[in-house]
Amino acid sequence: ILSKELNVPIIPVCIRGAYEALPRHRKYLYPRHIEIHYLPPVKPTADITYQQLADKVKQAIASVL
């Protein structure tokens, strides 16, 4: 909502390997490789709804996973 109201692009971020490094039931980190992917910005337009904007961001993240 803020992105659309303020006309600011959303930078989707995909983090892979974090769960393997620190599963829910563990107190300490496992030494694991964690990848962080910064995806291209998703820019809001005047004719797009909030839900469509959220769906675009979800699709961008799903394409990397």
Descriptive report:
By secondary structure, the protein is an alpha+beta fold. The protein contains three helices and two strands. The chain has helices at 2-6, 18-21, 50-64; strands spanning 13-16, 35-38. A two-stranded antiparallel ribbon has the order 1-2. The chain is elongated and about 45 Å long. 3% of the residues are buried. The mean pLDDT is 91.
**Helix-strand pattern:** HEHEH
* Helical stretch tally: 3
Percent of sequence in beta strands:
5-15%
Shape: elongated
Can you list the strand order of the major beta sheet? Answer: 1-2
Helix content: 25-40%
Sheet of most strands: 2 strands, antiparallel
What are the segments in which pLDDT stays under 50 over at least 5 consecutive residues? none
Give the end-to-end Cα distance, rounded to a whole number of Å: 25 Å
Question: What class do helices, strands and sheet pairing give?
Answer: alpha+beta
Instruction: Let me know the average pLDDT.
Output: 91
Number of strands: 2
Radius of gyration: 15 Å
Q: Top keywords for this entry?
A:
65 residues, alpha+beta, two-stranded antiparallel ribbon, 37% helix, 12% strand, elongated
Note the topology.
Blueprint: H1 2-6, E1 13-16, H2 18-21, E2 35-38, H3 50-64
Antiparallel strand pairs: 1-2
In short:
This protein is of the alpha+beta class.
